[in-house]
Every structure is written in structure tokens, then in C-alpha cells.
Amino acid sequence: MFERITTIVGLLAIVAAVGMYAIPHLLPGDAPGVMGLDLARIIDEQSRLDLKPLPVPAEDREICAALARATADNAGEGIERMRRHLAELGETALRRAALGWMLLLDQQGEAARKELARALELDPDSPYALVATGYDHLRYGRFEPAAARLGQALGKYAGSADWQRLYTAALLATGKLEQALAAAERAVALDPNTPSSYLLVGDVHLRGGRLSEALRWYEAACELAGPDSEITRNHQPVLEAMRERLGS
């Protein structure tokens, strides 16, 4: 759905702590992802989960419902609907951010950035515009501004595990391991039933050279995902290599 973040994947694909092995979710594959994240899935989920940060006026409830159903497959229809809504009712930060979000789903990056920039002009604290802008930076390897925008959004609304996972990815990419660990652990606390949160905590520990802690969190992710899951199947060779390295 979105472009792969190949630069960060290349940076983190092979970690010295596991020798010749690479962590599967650090490698480019058919699905776009970085450090345990399927960013396309997360963006899609955020459009549903994170309507909570802002109060939604009655006249915007319909477009927010459309945003909640948005996918790459139906984004075009949603974009036209958003534009009609703006033409009829005028612009607000929420409406511009919603249109920008739809354009991101439709991979219209330049048009999306114009809408998100306008949303931030109307409301510099708009969580939706900040997160969407941060994601766009992250997608293209602009990690410092990605972390800055995502951090701003979380300063306004810290209750989204999806946003915490994106923030972790940006922080990890910039080498801010202590902050990345805190964000990843918050994602687990907010969403304890999602394996990717546990994978992220493991990634931070692995990047910091704490192999035993990384192994513990990867094992927790696999246990949560289940023995027949893709996560578990992909990680078994890596977990075995890590256990061998640790002598356990």
C-alpha cells in the first residue's frame, strides 16, 4: 500500500548480536514494514482508532465515519467526498487533515502534504495532521522530523498505541534508544494484545546489545501471536540462534 522504508531496513536488518542471522521483521518483504511494524496496517487502524483526540462536530461525523472505513482501495471515492464536504462547509484543520490522510492512503504524497500543511496553519496542534506529517517523513527516511512531529502529536494525545509504535520507529532510527524503549513499552501497555508492540520492545533491546531481554520480548510476541502464526514461523530460526548464542 505504501512505499517500503528501505533505508532504515537496510540500516537495521543485520544486528551483530545475532551474528549471521537477521531479524525477519527488519527485512524488506512483500508488505511494507519497519522494525515489526506493518505501517500500512497501522495507518489504516489509526484512521479508526484515533478519532478520539479531537471533538468531532456534528457536521463532520459523516466524514469521520468515511475516514474510519478508508483503505487504499476506496480512497479515491473518499477524497472526492472530502473535497465536496470542504466546498460545502468550509475549511477546518480536521477537514484538511482528513483530506490529507485520504491522499496519503491514495499515495498522492505531494497533494497530501499541501493539505496537511494547510491543516497545521489552521491548527498547529492538530494531532491528525501532526501524525500524518510524521508518518510521511518516516516513510521517506526523514527520521528526525518524523520523530519531532510524532512527539508533538503524542504530547497532545498519548493514548494511541499505533502512534506510539510509529514514534518508536522514528526514535530507533535516530538512535534514541532510551526514548524508543519508553515509547515501545507504552505501546505494549496501551495495546497488550498486539504482537508488533512486543517485537518493537525486543528490537530496542537488541539494538542496545541486550540480547537476553530482546529474546524475552520476541518470545512473548510469538506466544501472543500463536504457534501457527506467520510471526512465530518467521522468528523460530532467529530465536533458536539467539538461544544458542546465549547458551540457553
Could you walk me through the main structural features you see in this protein, from its secondary elements to its overall organization?
With 248 residues, the chain is mainly α. The protein is built from 13 helices and no strands. It has a domain at 1-39 and 161-248: Tetratricopeptide repeat domain (Serine Threonine Protein Phosphatase 5, Tetratricopeptide repeat, Alpha Horseshoe), CATH 1.25.40.10.
Short descriptors:
disordered N terminus, 0% strand, Serine Threonine Protein Phosphatase 5, Tetratricopeptide repeat, 13 helices, 248 residues, mainly alpha
Short overview:
The protein is mainly alpha-helical and 248 residues long.
Integer-rounded radius of gyration: 19 Å
Low-confidence stretches: 1-49
Per DSSP, the total helix count is 13
- Provide the residue-averaged pLDDT: 78
| Helical residues, percent | 55-70%
